[in-house]
Amino acid sequence: xxxxxxxxxxxxxxxxxxxxxxxxxxxxxxxxxxVAAAVRPEAGPVTAVGGAAIDLTPAPVKDWAIRSFxxxxxxxxxxxxxxxxxxxxxxxxxxxxxxxxxGAAGVLVFGVVGTVAAVSRPDSQSWTDALPSLIGALIGSxxxxxxxxxLTPAPVxxxxxxxxxxxxxxxxxxxAAAVASAGVGTLGRSLTARHGKDAVASRTAVLLPxxxxxxxxxxxDAQLRVPGIKPFTTPNKDFYRVDTALVxxxxxxTAWRLRIHGKGVRRPLTLTFQDLLNxxxxxxxxTLTCVSNEVGGPYVGNARWIGVRLADLLREAGVKPPSRGGxxxxxxxxxxxxMTLGTPVDAVMDGRDALLxxxxxxxxxxxxxxxxxxxxxxxxxxxxxACKWIEDxxxxxxxxxxxxxxxxxxxxxxxxKTQSRIDTPKPFARPGAGTVMIAGVAWAxxxxxxxxxxxxxxxxxxxxxxxxxxxxxxxxxxxxxxxxTSGSHTLSVRATDRAGEIQTEKRAKTVPDGASGWxxxxxxxx
Length: 526
What we know:
Layout: H1 2-39, H2 45-56, H3 59-69, H4 73-98, H5 100-120, H6 131-151, H7 163-204, E1 257-262, E2 269-272, H8 273-277, E3 282-289, E4 300-309, H9 310-316, E5 330-335, E6 340-344, H10 345-348, E7 355-360, E8 363-364, E9 374-376, E10 390-396, H11 404-407, E11 419-424, E12 434-443, E13 449-456, E14 462-463, E15 465-466, E16 476-484, E17 487-497, E18 519-525
Parallel strand pairs: 1-10
Antiparallel strand pairs: 1-2, 3-4, 4-7, 5-6, 5-10, 7-8, 7-9, 11-12, 12-16, 13-14, 13-17, 15-16, 17-18
């Protein structure tokens, strides 16, 4: 009986030690969040470590994460970080049960990792970014030390400890730590939310002026009436989001500034949001594509953008494209979160509608898509052209500087490849025999689509019916009626752009300059 009681006591102590570790971790994170609210929300340890993890992740792994989890990839990363912290906290609690000081000191490792991550982030503004992780770790260490002390009190006058009283003391201490941590965490989240209120208010106050050059009316027959096909204009809520920001930046438009400087800039510019609103704005329908979009993937969308011609600003700054003797061949755009994207200067200044966009589909940019200002350049994948939350433009050369994605093995220049996609029928659909409408979209931004062809199994290529082409910078819908017969069938699609280039059958992964190949769908006709 004594042996059973001893085992139960040991198990209870081990569980209590694990709980102590978890409560210490909770206290550390709550305190760090409160300090981050006072310093800078992005300096919080989970955000800083998550950002560092994204930066250190190899490109193929990032590609897999985007492909597997889509826009939830950042949530998955955050859950992964929290899971690791939970295991780490449990281990420290058990360690502290045997070696109280060593276990408590182990919490400081949490602070070191968070500190290094925070101060090394590209958007780090000062040494104060280290404070959230350091203070959080110190508080977590103290909590673990005190809880383990309450769990294993020293005997008095050589007598055995009163386990019942000691258990009550531990429960009181643990409950106090949990309640205090919850209160601190709630206060931290509340203060962090206040940081974004000014940004939300500034966006709410924006009234987009009427553009000097409005977008042409979308032809009624640009949108096919085929169930299952994606709409010609992608609603903001459905527009894809692929970026490295673990927390979406909330930028106050009234405090925002854009700096244009660098090689070949004779007149550096610093612009406010209101400066851009006061300029001549143009409105254009432009399709954007992410380089992480697999063949047939969802990371492509079409929207109506309003903004300022980027080429006009560059000319005002005295910039010449390299084709006309300019010193810079690369434009490096920097985001408020430290992201850098490199764009060929010639592409921005060759006459295409490259924009600093202020609005999207009739409203100020959503925060997810770059409010207050982002770049939009037709014909280039987003990783070299579509900087969101932009705050700095530096003119330089490809030889002198490698931006974020180039350092990680992606291409320096990345024109969008001609692609097509089957939207309906879906993969593994089971349509009935008879006439089945095959339909989808094709794109060759800044070139335009000339022809789309569909093949059933190994049969001949059949020319699809094309919806009206709105502009060469937007995607184009297509459809083909198919007399389906019972059995399993493979549907394939390919497009030809207006330069006469036929979409290649050769399969290529997204790295380094975009996926290629024909989109195929297998269906079972009943």
